[in-house]
Specification:
The structure is a single chain. The protein is mainly α. It has a single domain, classed as Sodium/glucose cotransporter (Up-down Bundle), CATH 1.20.1730.10. Helix 1 packs across helix 10 and helix 7 packs antiparallel against helix 8. The termini are far apart.
Length: 533
């Protein structure tokens, strides 16, 4: 009961503070609702970026991958520093210069309306069918055991595993929908920042208690002693260079792993939407680079607990996606259970309502106003986003329990993401660099990349994996899509080279420390890999 009460208290506290901090916000205009009125400062951007990313598919999935493969899976965290440096210095200035609200809107400026329409539908389908159900499933999986849901409802009803999971999915889905539908992007960013501090604190606490348990089982005490024992017991699990048998072999850092990180942090609507709401370029760069440095701490929260779980529970027949929840239940003091469960809910809500808000933005601005009702006013556009959010949330809540059969939800997420991440990123980057190809070249190249990735992910997957790592295949498809766009661009060309115009909506004066901060971030990434090589 203490766990439940503390959980409800901390969850309600964040909700109340969010309402108080955002009660005067503009929710009627499209910029106010979808882009927080372009008022977000560096702290909010960094906090929101971190918590949108640090959700349960990361806590559960990445720690599960570390349980199986060790430290090498830190690539998903550390390589993000490279992507965020590029986002701050190259992508963000170009996005803010156009004053866009969505990535497809940028593609419309570069190529035309048809490219925007295709990419909008692609994002909406991917978020609805893949991302949102996975967020709800992994969140429910983590919370179900942490709060002992079946035990809590036992006096009322007897629930099986699937029924218990479904109950948590619907509770979290309904609460997350309320944030996204009624609060808009600023409410999401504020609640993300509040929950972010709790998540980082709780994440480090789990690692600390886990190391203490390692030391205690060896007849000693202390966090540092626990780390020493852990490294001596399993030295092969502390290598940054993943072996060929791991899920992240070292060579893949330069192909699929890097490309997935670049798309995720530089062009993924769900993630970058809060950067598009930056008050100015300087605040946007400050927030993105701060998030980059915070990501370097990610392995302490998202990788080390998985290694600890392997050390403590290696004798058990434990599914890798159950490793994190098992560790939390084993080492977390009872008095902290409710707080950490509330933080976990915050992480789930962050990713869920961010993806939901991004989906609504894409639909309202790209499909509803762009195709269905071009003359619609701001009120109608915002209202369409709210209704669409409700429908998408309902679909995600119905689909989440169907993911119970997946062996590794994190690996499944990365492979499915690659189907649209890789071709989209190829078209966006090529369009920024090459200025003569028209919409036909981009659309055909995008279709080519989607078909190649879909065939590789399903029909050809076994044959490909017999010859190469699948992440290398992603790199090949990326290069082939770029080559296709350049080749078709020689056939279908604009009359004059594309010139990006300044919309004047955002102050583009850069942060004066952006260049040295980005350089330091890259040096830190390299140092981490060298120190654990």
């Amino acid at each position: 009961m203490l766990t439940l009460l503390s959980f409800l208290f901390f969850t309600a506290l964040v909700g109340i503070l969010t309402v108080l901090l955002t009660r005067g916000d503009d929710h009627r205009s499209t910029a106010g609702y979808f882009l927080a009125g372009r008022t977000l400062t560096g702290g909010y951007i960094a906090g929101s970026l971190m918590l949108t990313n640090l959700s349960t598919e990361q806590l559960v999935g990445l720690n599960g991958a570390a349980f199986a493969d060790g430290l090498c899976v830190m690539a998903w965290e550390v390589v993000a520093g490279v992507a965020l440096a590029l986002m701050a210095m190259w992508f963000l200035p170009r996005f803010l210069k156009s004053g866009i609200a969505t990535v497809p809107e940028f593609l419309e400026y570069r190529f035309g309306k048809s490219t925007r329409t295709i990419t909008t539908f692609l994002f909406v389908l991917a978020y609805t069918l893949l991302l949102l159900p996975i967020i709800l499933y992994t969140g429910a999986r983590g919370l179900e055991g942490m709060l002992d849901v079946r035990g809590l409802v036992a006096p009322i009803a007897t629930l099986g595993e699937r029924s218990s999971l479904t109950l948590v999915v619907w509770i979290v889905g309904l609460v997350g929908s309320a944030y996204a539908i009624f609060g808009g992007l600023r409410a999401i960013a504020v609640s993300d920042t509040l929950n972010g501090f709790g998540l980082i604190l709780g994440g480090f606490a789990i690692a600390g208690f886990g190391l203490g348990e390692v030391a205690a089982r060896a007849g000693s005490s202390g966090v540092f002693e626990g780390m020493r024992i852990l490294r001596e017991a399993d030295p092969e699990r502390f290598h940054s260079m993943g072996p060929a048998t791991s899920s992240v072999p070292f060579s893949t850092l330069f192909t699929g792993v890097l490309l997935l990180n670049l798309f995720y942090w530089c062009t993924n609507q769900q993630i970058i939407q809060r950067t598009l709401g930056a008050k100015n370029l300087a605040e946007g760069q400050r927030g993105v680079l701060l998030a980059g440095f915070l990501k370097l701490l990610g392995p302490m929260i998202l990788v080390l607990p998985g290694i600890i779980a392997f050390h403590l529970f290696r004798d058990r027949e434990l599914a890798q996606d159950a490793a994190y929840g098992t560790l939390v239940r084993a080492v977390l003091p009872h008095w902290m259970s409710g707080f950490f469960a509330a933080v976990m809910v915050g992480a789930i809500l962050s990713s869920f309502n961010s993806a939901l808000n991004a989906t609504a933005t894409l639909f309202s601005l790209g499909i509803y106003k762009g195709l269905l009702r071009p003359s619609a006013g701001p009120d109608a556009v915002v209202r369409s986003g709210k209704w669409f959010s409700a429908l998408v949330a309902l679909a995600a809540m119905l689909g989440a329990p169907l993911l119970m059969e997946q062996k590794s939800i994190f690996e499944y997420l990365q492979q499915m993401n690659g189907i649209y991440f890789i071709p989209l990123f190829a078209v966006i980057v090529t369009g920024m660099v090459e200025r003569r190809a028209d919409a036909r070249a981009a659309n055909i190249a995008l279709l080519f990349g989607l078909i190649a990735m879909a065939l590789g992910s399903f029909a050809w997957k076994d044959a490909i994996e017999q010859r190469m790592y699948f992440f290398h295949f992603m790199g090949i498809v990326f290069l082939a899509t770029v080559a296709a766009q350049l080749a078709f661009g020689r056939m279908w060309r604009r009359e004059s080279p594309w010139v990006q115009e300044d919309s004047g909506e955002v102050d583009l004066a850069p942060w004066r420390f952006a260049t040295p901060a980005a350089a330091l971030l890259l040096v830190c990434v390299l140092a981490i890999y060298i120190s654990f090589a």
